[in-house]
Amino acid sequence: MNLSDAPVHEAALAIEAVHLGKAYRPNASPAARLRAALLGREIPGDSFWALRDVSLQVRKGESLGLIGNNGAGKSTLLQLLCGTVTPTTGTVRVDGRVAALLELGAGFNPDFSGRDNVLLNGPLLGLGRAQLLEQMDSIIEFSGIGHFIDQPVKTYSSGMFVRLAFALATSVEPDILVIDEALSVGDGGFARKSFDRILAMKERGTTILFCSHSLYQIEAFCDRVLWLHEGKAMAVGPSHAVVRDYTLFLAGGSPEVPAPGAPVAVPSAEESAAPLSAPVAAPPADPEAPAPVATPVTQPGTATPGHARIRRVVTSLDGVASTRLQMTPGQGTLRVSIEFDSDPGIPMPTAGMTFELANTMILSSVVSRTDKVMLERDAQGRGTATIEFGPLALRKGDYYIGAYLGNENAIHLYSEAARIALLSVTDPRPEPGLVDLPHTWRVEPGHVED
């Protein structure tokens, strides 16, 4: 894919990087590094290039996603663009105030109160003391920490700490927002609240750089995507095209692709107080071994304001519930039931599920919003969404079933249950393929042109 876009007038650019590179010499002593910094000389020895020869233009108001394996250079690029790291080669020009959600609260002093930390760290974000005093009440209100603002930060929970840091970082009304890994921070209702603030900034025309391993969020949120690999730019272009190429690259044998049976995360305790079925690893060694059946779990509805969660996921084939399902092509009825709890005051959530291959590629997905299906819930915010499939056209193979619950536009995920069940399809036919596509045959003697 072409890495260079059409030239853009300088006034329309928020960020311009030209042949940007960053090298480290991991074996150099601290004294050698100090001498090199003072004298402006190179340190002898081999260099490790975290980023090399990356040129990039980001238009004002654009949302650019960064993808790549761990160690690809994404965080290094963000640090260079934020000015926290100096480049070894190339130049970078940034037009506007930058707010970075990289290491929230990294400059906070644990012995100082939250209020003092806001006043001390605000100037680093470009806010004067008068501005901070004017915005102090709104920062405290958004963070939700109340009277704890005058307590030492070391007494805060991790959630309180990140809420205050986020409220401060996003109070500056930046021209450019840099996000590393998550479109929301904190847990429960604050995660939704922080997502809404980021989305509002995007709608106001804030330029956003979003680095994440969530390819779904990258494609749904960003206008364009830059793919980095081993410090080099592999592609930049429309989100759907670059994400497609990166997904195919991962499926082709990336060392980062987990082997079948590798552990997969399920909702945390904050996301779901009720246990879900355990993530499925590899198929059992003994094909005759009994499959565990999902057992009912009874928990009260969530009382967390602004939040929703998956309570339980039940998968069944022909009415028999199990986390290990076996079928032959074109046989059986598959049902995936997603029970959820939600704050009745938030917009109706969306539900979805995926069929995932062992190499982490998503074979297919179903989303209620895309299918124009509105979920239903009772006065306590409880509901169940059941997805039913008639005879599946899947061919031989193992397919992991996952489920998730998102907000009304399906970008922010409240809760996720990855690889909640395993569907194994056996097919005696030797022909290759993953699915049977609908088709018809027409046969006749002779050739058509006759």
Automatic annotation (TrEMBL):
DNA repair keyword on record: no
Any one GO MF annotation of this record: ABC-type transporter activity
Pfam family for this entry, one: ABC_tran
Region of interest: Disordered: 275-306
Keywords for this protein: ATP-binding, Cell membrane, Membrane, Nucleotide-binding, Transport
Gene3D superfamilies: P-loop containing nucleotide triphosphate hydrolases
Bias-annotated ranges (Low complexity): 291-305
SMART domains named among the record's database cross-references: AAA
Protein's recorded name: ABC transporter ATP-binding protein
Organism: Ramlibacter lithotrophicus
